[in-house]
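ok trying this again, last paste got cut off
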Amino acid sequence: MSCSRARRSILLGLLLVGGCSGARPKCIDCGTVLVAAIGEPSTLLPPLVYETVGRDISDQIYERLAYLASKGSPIDSSAYRPGLARSWERIDSLTWRFHLRPDAHWQDGRPVTATDVVFSFDAFSDSTLEANALGYLAGKVRAQAEDSATVRITFTERSPEQLYDATYHVRVIPRHIWDTIPRSRWAADTNLAHLIGSGPYRIQTWQRGSHLTLVADTARTGADDPPEVRRVIWRFASDPDAALNLLLSHEADIMEAVGSEARVRRVESDSSFRLVSYPAAGSGFLAFRLADAAGRPHPVLADKQLRRALAQAIDRPTLARAVFGAGTKAPPGPMSQLLWIWDDATKVVEFDSAQSRETLARLKARHPLGSIDILVPSTSATRRQLAVVIQEAWRKAGINATVTAVDFPVFQERLAKGRFDTYIGAYLDEPSPRGLADGWTRAGWTAVNYGHYANPVFDSLLLLASREENVANAKRRWREALDTLNADVPAIFLYSLANVAAVHRRLKRVELDPYSWASELSSWEVDGRRYRRTAVPPALTHSSASGSSAASSTQ
């Protein structure tokens, strides 16, 4: 089918995806990729982005100064590749200098300058906006323009993660657009003309409640060598099943996380797609309440022998695979498979049902243990499932347990007030392990250490690990800290997830970065020999073919 016929088919309500012959697309319609997304972002302006789908889209529009390799350590300077900055160097123990790409331009044609970078760091550090990285940047990092293409970034404290903090959190936004708008009004701004970045794609249309379209910024990449994926349409679905239905009805080409094994089997039945497994940033655990906010010990769970016996009753690897599928692992601590400090040599409490029953029987002979409650949010079917399996394992070991499911706001309130025995929680990692301090140190009692675990030895080891600048030495120190944590059994670390993506077979060289799965989208290839017709709602077809400019407002 010719490209002109492909254009006409759009107007008729049929989108031909990859329908032009030849190895490389000859028109924008041939290089279109449709994404089945769960949920819709509230904004794409980087300092205000919280949802992962918003991050995935926004990262196609805006750039960081540099990019950390998906499996790299934040303290390894060789693990970073150029982004908006073409090079950088350390000046002293507190200061770095970044040199911007000389060809970097905003999508409205204006050059990117050092003042844009300074403005962006200030925005991400502004409490008015409450950016996710506020705690890492405000009062700790300062950016200054040395000249139009050179930025000096200064830290208040020495840290092996300075390069990480200078590059990972901040996406650079155009000062000439946003400095004219009060920051208190940024969240309410819906003008697409303001969503201008320096990245490989620019926003074309956004039909709220339906879809969003990005197109390749050919002025940036060079007209002679544009990306093969010329246009990306995010289709927004209300839940995983709705997103999967878009995929299996051939109204989407890719779904980043298919979910349960039942959904995976549905994809396997369609030969148009292949499944790609990759580590995810999520992990989960059952935490014990060891003490209350005043430090008074729990009447039962303060006993480390009891906690150890309860942990021995759980076959963590089997449980993880049964609930979340192949590829999911039982972690050696509170971490996802992505975290660079993962070490299989870390000491953990192994499954030993016989030893568990023996210890619990001995403890029960000393004093009654009563029943232990497991608190979960009612909105999470998987956490309820985990709780029921653990409840049964503990029953077999000789301990009665109950499961309490409450609405998520009530769940959070009960955690904050210490009104629980145990709870099943989940974390979403960033590349740095320093978040462990919030969850498991004495200082974390005011953060998310709801179980009020405290061990000064662990705190000291974690601090030493976080200050180590050599990767091998740091990994050893992190393992020592986790050995101490696991010996105290403040929690049972249940699972570390793996995602399974569904990818249409016409898409080649698809590399999925778990921290931002679509980050390499501009380097994907499209096999023009594979195509199929995809029915598209009239609203999407109209907006895709109308040529609406980026000046359109959201609806």
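PB: full thing came through this time. Residues 379 and 464 are 38 Å apart (CA to CA).
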